[in-house]
UniProtKB/TrEMBL annotation:
An example molecular function term from Gene Ontology annotations: peroxiredoxin activity
UniProt-listed Pfam families: CMD (PF02627)
Signal peptide start-end: none
Protein name, as recorded: Alkyl hydroperoxide reductase AhpD
InterPro entries found in the cross-reference section: AhpD-like (IPR029032), AhpD_core (IPR004675), CMD-like (IPR003779)
Organism: Mycolicibacterium psychrotolerans
Domain Carboxymuconolactone decarboxylase-like: 11-92
Length: 146
Protein backbone atom coordinates (compact mmCIF):
# COMPACT_ATOMS: atom_id res chain seq x y z
CA UNK A 1 0.00 0.00 0.00
CA UNK A 2 1.30 3.44 -0.90
CA UNK A 3 1.11 5.89 1.96
CA UNK A 4 0.58 9.60 1.95
CA UNK A 5 3.55 11.80 1.10
CA UNK A 6 2.58 14.06 3.95
CA UNK A 7 5.21 16.75 3.49
CA UNK A 8 4.10 17.25 -0.11
CA UNK A 9 0.38 17.27 0.67
CA UNK A 10 0.78 19.40 3.81
CA UNK A 11 3.88 21.57 3.38
CA UNK A 12 2.74 23.85 6.20
CA UNK A 13 3.12 20.86 8.57
CA UNK A 14 6.73 20.44 7.49
CA UNK A 15 7.37 24.17 7.92
CA UNK A 16 5.81 24.17 11.41
CA UNK A 17 7.83 21.12 12.44
CA UNK A 18 11.04 22.75 11.19
CA UNK A 19 10.23 25.89 13.19
CA UNK A 20 9.64 23.77 16.30
CA UNK A 21 12.87 21.82 15.68
CA UNK A 22 14.89 25.01 15.37
CA UNK A 23 13.37 26.48 18.53
CA UNK A 24 13.95 23.27 20.51
CA UNK A 25 17.62 23.10 19.48
CA UNK A 26 18.53 26.50 20.92
CA UNK A 27 20.92 26.31 23.87
CA UNK A 28 21.40 22.53 23.57
CA UNK A 29 24.86 21.34 22.56
CA UNK A 30 24.51 19.92 19.03
CA UNK A 31 26.11 16.59 19.99
CA UNK A 32 23.69 16.16 22.90
CA UNK A 33 20.80 17.08 20.65
CA UNK A 34 21.73 14.33 18.22
CA UNK A 35 21.95 11.77 21.04
CA UNK A 36 18.44 12.78 22.16
CA UNK A 37 17.11 12.45 18.61
CA UNK A 38 18.80 9.11 18.01
CA UNK A 39 17.64 7.57 21.30
CA UNK A 40 14.00 8.54 20.78
CA UNK A 41 14.19 7.35 17.17
CA UNK A 42 15.58 3.98 18.32
CA UNK A 43 12.67 3.54 20.71
CA UNK A 44 10.16 4.62 18.05
CA UNK A 45 11.76 2.52 15.28
CA UNK A 46 12.04 5.50 12.91
CA UNK A 47 14.54 4.42 10.27
CA UNK A 48 14.44 7.77 8.48
CA UNK A 49 15.36 9.73 11.62
CA UNK A 50 17.94 7.16 12.74
CA UNK A 51 19.69 7.39 9.40
CA UNK A 52 19.66 11.20 9.41
CA UNK A 53 20.70 11.77 13.00
CA UNK A 54 23.43 9.14 13.21
CA UNK A 55 25.02 10.71 10.12
CA UNK A 56 24.62 14.18 11.68
CA UNK A 57 26.12 12.96 14.97
CA UNK A 58 29.17 11.54 13.20
CA UNK A 59 29.65 14.83 11.33
CA UNK A 60 29.67 16.60 14.73
CA UNK A 61 32.33 14.22 16.02
CA UNK A 62 30.24 11.90 18.18
CA UNK A 63 32.33 8.74 18.40
CA UNK A 64 31.36 5.35 17.04
CA UNK A 65 31.52 3.71 20.46
CA UNK A 66 28.99 6.16 21.88
CA UNK A 67 26.68 5.61 18.91
CA UNK A 68 27.17 1.83 19.04
CA UNK A 69 26.04 1.53 22.66
CA UNK A 70 23.46 4.32 22.76
CA UNK A 71 20.54 1.89 22.98
CA UNK A 72 22.10 0.56 26.21
CA UNK A 73 23.44 3.87 27.53
CA UNK A 74 22.38 3.14 31.13
CA UNK A 75 24.67 0.10 31.21
CA UNK A 76 27.55 1.80 29.36
CA UNK A 77 29.46 3.06 32.39
CA UNK A 78 31.20 6.39 31.97
CA UNK A 79 30.97 6.47 28.16
CA UNK A 80 28.21 9.06 28.59
CA UNK A 81 28.61 12.23 30.64
CA UNK A 82 26.25 12.97 33.55
CA UNK A 83 24.45 15.57 31.38
CA UNK A 84 24.05 13.06 28.56
CA UNK A 85 22.78 10.41 30.97
CA UNK A 86 20.25 12.85 32.44
CA UNK A 87 19.06 13.92 28.98
CA UNK A 88 18.80 10.33 27.77
CA UNK A 89 16.83 9.25 30.86
CA UNK A 90 14.45 12.17 30.36
CA UNK A 91 14.15 11.45 26.64
CA UNK A 92 13.24 7.83 27.34
CA UNK A 93 10.69 8.85 29.97
CA UNK A 94 9.07 11.34 27.57
CA UNK A 95 9.12 8.85 24.69
CA UNK A 96 7.60 5.99 26.70
CA UNK A 97 5.34 7.87 29.10
CA UNK A 98 3.57 4.93 30.69
CA UNK A 99 0.78 5.39 33.20
CA UNK A 100 2.61 7.86 35.43
CA UNK A 101 4.45 10.12 32.99
CA UNK A 102 7.96 11.30 33.83
CA UNK A 103 8.97 10.18 37.33
CA UNK A 104 10.17 12.64 39.93
CA UNK A 105 13.54 10.85 40.04
CA UNK A 106 14.16 11.22 36.31
CA UNK A 107 12.97 14.82 36.34
CA UNK A 108 15.15 15.69 39.34
CA UNK A 109 18.21 14.15 37.70
CA UNK A 110 17.64 16.31 34.63
CA UNK A 111 16.82 19.41 36.67
CA UNK A 112 20.14 19.00 38.51
CA UNK A 113 22.09 18.60 35.27
CA UNK A 114 20.64 21.54 33.34
CA UNK A 115 19.67 25.16 33.88
CA UNK A 116 15.95 25.89 33.66
CA UNK A 117 16.41 27.19 30.12
CA UNK A 118 18.42 24.13 29.05
CA UNK A 119 15.94 21.76 30.70
CA UNK A 120 13.10 23.36 28.76
CA UNK A 121 15.06 22.97 25.56
CA UNK A 122 15.89 19.30 26.27
CA UNK A 123 12.21 18.60 26.95
CA UNK A 124 11.21 20.42 23.77
CA UNK A 125 13.82 18.51 21.75
CA UNK A 126 12.55 15.15 23.03
CA UNK A 127 8.95 16.14 22.29
CA UNK A 128 9.86 17.38 18.81
CA UNK A 129 11.78 14.27 17.72
CA UNK A 130 8.91 12.15 19.00
CA UNK A 131 6.53 14.13 16.78
CA UNK A 132 8.83 13.66 13.76
CA UNK A 133 9.12 9.93 14.54
CA UNK A 134 5.37 9.50 14.77
CA UNK A 135 4.70 11.35 11.53
CA UNK A 136 7.34 9.33 9.68
CA UNK A 137 6.14 6.05 11.20
CA UNK A 138 2.56 6.77 10.21
CA UNK A 139 3.44 7.34 6.56
CA UNK A 140 6.43 4.93 6.43
CA UNK A 141 9.03 7.48 5.36
CA UNK A 142 12.08 5.42 4.34
CA UNK A 143 15.64 6.61 4.69
CA UNK A 144 17.13 7.80 1.41
CA UNK A 145 19.20 5.32 -0.57
CA UNK A 146 22.89 6.18 -0.54
Amino acid sequence: MTRLRIYKSSPELYDAMMTLSTAAAKDVEPELGELIKIRASQINHCAFCLDMHTRDARKLGVGDQKLDVLAAWAEAGDIFTPRERAALALTEAITVLGDHGVSDDVYALAADAFTDRELGQVIAMAVTINAWNRINAAVHTPPPRR
